[in-house]
């Protein structure tokens, strides 16, 4: 991949830009295997899940800078000034196609971009999510309720210039903080969930929902976990850190009991919406609001799936899973270092198969998925 912004020194976010993709992937795979080597000696390493080198991101988090009638959408430079990156090659074509209409919309609304050095202004970020059906969730991060009302009044114009924006919200972040969003989310459209269709499963994303940023690779990751689950034929599955139900709903099948646990009530509500949409195609599926790190549901699963944030599951949950009755465990991790720490706290599990998942080309970030089994547990052919 070649990037004019990188070549001109305007953006250095892609730390591996210019390195051939095959070399990027080989280095990531070698690093992951090295970090996990104490715990994967007997595991079979499957071929890495590859990504397109460019045009793969389904979500854009754009900092707003510049002037009210000509804002920049991109990042801030070292001096805190806006750098416009609307031609960045990382984004899916359908996502990149929203940038110019949104730029024109914001130029007309003329909210003052937030000036970080001066700590003055209104509009901080624009966050856009692109679905496989070509629809969009658009969030405007602003400082005050006055800006929310101005966006609300301008919503008919946004519907004209960007009819694919099915879910639109304003997030209020009044403080000067190095964070992306605030605590208050104000819906501006009647529709509040964006369908994210992956094969037979229509997931639903709310404004704050987590979803893998690379739809192509997410499909492959879900397919791998589904293949593992089908091979070990569990009748009960416990999905911890289930989010909007991505893994849980992919694993749901007639006669299989699924329980998903997630701290976000908003994500649980979205997961239940997706489960209701699938209806009779599923066995029993439950989603509950809870903290996986503080205790496990009253369920004796055959298979446990965990997909935690970068910090991992931590020693307490790792010890509980080490003593759990399940015969198999799938761990999907975006941080091999925290995964290695967690595996060290689960000595009764052995890695059976492992796979590197390249969710973030052009960077050193990498994901890995493991199938683990108890000593003596079978791995179906």
* Percentage of residues in strands: 25-35%
Structural class: alpha/beta
Number of helices: 11
Q: What oligomeric arrangement do these chains adopt?
A: single chain
Low-confidence stretches: none
Number of domains: 2
CATH topology of the largest domain: Rossmann fold
Q: Between the first and last Cα atoms, what is the distance in angstroms?
A: 39 Å
Q: How many beta-strand runs?
A: 17
Architecture (CATH level 2) name of the largest domain: 3-Layer(aba) Sandwich
The global form is globular
Mean pLDDT comes to: 94
* CATH top level label of the largest domain: Alpha Beta
User: What are the secondary-structure elements, in order, as H or E?
Assistant: HHEEEEHHEEHHEEEEHEHEHEEHEHEE
How would you describe this structure to a colleague?
This protein has 381 residues and is of the alpha/beta class. It folds into two domains: 4-53 and 200-374, Vaccinia Virus protein VP39 (Rossmann fold, 3-Layer(aba) Sandwich); 59-191, OB fold (Dihydrolipoamide Acetyltransferase, E2P), CATH 2.40.50. The chain is built from eleven helices and 17 strands. It has an eight-stranded mixed β-sheet, sandwiched between helices. A seven-stranded mixed β-sheet has the order 4-3-2-5-6-7-8. Strand 14, helix 10 (314-322) and strand 15 (328-333) form a beta-alpha-beta unit. It is globular. The model has no long low-confidence stretch (mean pLDDT 94).
